[in-house]
Amino acid sequence: MELRRWTLGEPGELHPDNRELLSDIDQLISDDNRAEVMRIIRGWPPANIMELLILLPLRKARKLYDWLPPDPAVKVLVSINPELRTVLMQESGIRRMAAIAEMLDEDDAVELLADFPDEFVAEVLKRLDNADALVERLKFAEDTAGEVMSNKFVVVRDTWDVGTATRAIRRKASMIEKFYEAYVVDEERRLIGRLKLRDLLLNKKKVLIRDIMRDLPVTVSADTDQEDVLDLAARNRLQTVPVVNDEQQVIGRITVDALQDIIRDEAEEDMMLMSGVTPDSISDHSLTKIIRGRLPWLIGGLLGAAMAGIVVGNFADELKQAAILATFIPVVMAVAGNAGIQASTVTVQGLASGNLWTGDLGRRFAREFFGSLINGAIIAVLLVMLVMLASLVIEIHQPHRLAFAAGLSVALVTSLAATLGSSVPLVLDHFGIDPAVATGVFITTGNDILSVLVYFAIATSIYIGA
To answer: Could you please report the per-residue DSSP string of 299-357?
Structure first.
């Protein structure tokens, strides 16, 4: 019997050696030939099965996943991207979901169930032995410390010595994949310090924990926003962040892996918001969610474009006198839009990473304004040269005045757009609104209106009014 192997390729790309095998498995799934598919993939590592699933059409990937025995199904589920994991299991039945959740550890089970409807999760929980613990974890709001925290942590008493603490940590070694630090608590289990691995290694067995424990730089509550957790961890250079309740007792920890997931999630969310797309409107969601997530932004763009059109309409008489002015409207709008997006993106990134020096905002605005003014001046010179060259080929009335009007407009709107792009995210952040929404639709629309007003104000006074 021929043994067919799968060669791992680049993420999301089909390795040339797998082309025929993928086609054969695709056809076998269409033919409902489960036995032959299982024979082919028997013994495959989870990473190979995961890549196969991603390269198959979603309907067939779900079908193949439902065919997998419980053990490989769980291993594949743990290794796959969390968003793809939810998409893959959207049509799984309650019984199948319960069987999978039963085999996962608590953290992975919570992560899996969190993205499904409450009614569906409630039915799944009825079939689980550890339902109470999962219910307690699932009650936390989305994108909070409580949602992303792990319940795998080590606690030691401040009255213990190093030897006792070391034995306690060893007993928990099987449940802790990565040990960074232990949390030190008092007799009422309140968090009072932390203990690094090196503290245990470098001290004698009889040394008391209270004498060598370290201060806690920061703690968070379960309802702390995950973006704030990330900011605190970055500023304090923490590998883990303890989560405490109202009595300052440890209820969980946020690990490096969770922090990396938060970085990815926040970056993806900001990228979507900056593009005028809500996180609910990714392509793997339902048609209703796609429409609901994207339509408001498109309507906002439509209203902004309509307002810019009204501004242009108010200068209809000027356009009749000099139709050539219309030629430069898209030029001025495009340059302003690019300058605004650049400035707003830099500001949003600075706010997200905590690298924005708040006390230096005045100088920052000045740098943005004058930097954009210089860029605008360079672009203006190029535009003037293009107009003058064009006047040699086609007839242009008063080309010198037209070139000067267009160039001055570009230089001015570039600096104004950059200033607007830098300031709007800061204003939104001040009022508690995600500054990522300042880019994309809003900045572009605002700059369109501003650039048209400035352009026609200059053009009518310099070119038409001459």
So the answer is: HHHHHHHHHHHHHHHTTHHHHHH-GGGGGGHHHHHHHHHHHHHHHHHHHHHHHHHT---
